[in-house]
Every structure is written in structure tokens, then in C-alpha cells.
Specification:
Helices cover about 40% and strands about 15% of the residues. The protein has about 120 residues and is α/β, with parallel strands linked by helices. A four-stranded mixed beta sheet has the order 1-2-3-4. Strand 1 (about 1-5) and strand 2 (about 10-15) form a beta hairpin. Helix 2 runs parallel beside helix 5 (about 80-95). The longest helix has 17 residues, at about 80-95. Belongs to the barstar family. Pfam families: Barstar. This is Barstar family protein.
Length: about 120
């Protein structure tokens, strides 16, 4: 985990290879280290994202930046679900002080970036 220039903890949610809601929820549970009682549904995700008590310990005091990367495959496979996911991220950001969710690169982290020339 890193921190941004404001001192907030930066956590990456890597969705590479995720193509459905179950995969998204599993990846959220893993990458965000959500508690065992995490319900793996949209409401539970929104509640968990907005609740600093389930964030990594240092993030509760400093704030949390969640960078969602590798999301394009899921967005293309399930556009309606991805739309809900985006709403959940936005709602959690609005509800939880100290949380900022941003979309990073849409492709896999294993892809080579375009090279100039």
C-alpha cells in the first residue's frame, strides 16, 4: 500500500479477469481485506466502503483512495452491473468522509502500455 500526496492510504482494487458481480465481490473482499461477514451484495459493498472501521487501520485516520483498475472487461461483459458498481462507488464516496474512489487504467495490469512512435 502506498500513500498519495495528501497522506491518504492508496489501495488498488484490481478487477483484471472479473466479468461478473460474484467476481467483483470476491475481488473486493480480497483486495480490500473486508471482514468475513461482508455480504457480497451491492448494499454491503456500499456500507463497507463508507465505513472507516473496515478499512485498513491506518486509512481510518488518514483517509483512503481506492484505485479501481482492470475494470474494462467487466464493464463490457456486464454493462448494467458495471453501472451499478459505479453508482455504489460514487455513493460510498459521498457517504464516507475520507474516501475517494477513482478509475485507473481499464485494461489488465499485465498489458503493455502503448509505446510512442
Amino acid at each position: 500500500m502506498n500513500e498519495d500526496s495528501a497522506g491518504r492510504l492508496v489501495v488498488t482494487l484490481d478487477l483484471a479477469g472479473v466479468t461478473d458481480k460474484a467476481g467483483l465481490m470476491d475481488r473486493c473482499a480480497r483486495d480490500l481485506a473486508l471482514p468475513d461477514w461482508f455480504g457480497r451484495n451491492w448494499d454491503a459493498l456500499a456500507d463497507s466502503l463508507a465505513d472507516p472501521s473496515v478499512w485498513p487501520e491506518e486509512a481510518a485516520e488518514r483517509g483512503l483512495v481506492l484505485v479501481v483498475r482492470g475494470w474494462r472487461e467487466y464493464a463490457e461483459a456486464r454493462p448494467d452491473e458495471w453501472s451499478v458498481a459505479e453508482e455504489v462507488f460514487a455513493e460510498a464516496t459521498d457517504r464516507g468522509p475520507g474516501l475517494f474512489v477513482t478509475l485507473g487504467p481499464g485494461g489488465s495490469s499485465k498489458e503493455v502500455a502503448d509505446q510512442p512512435g
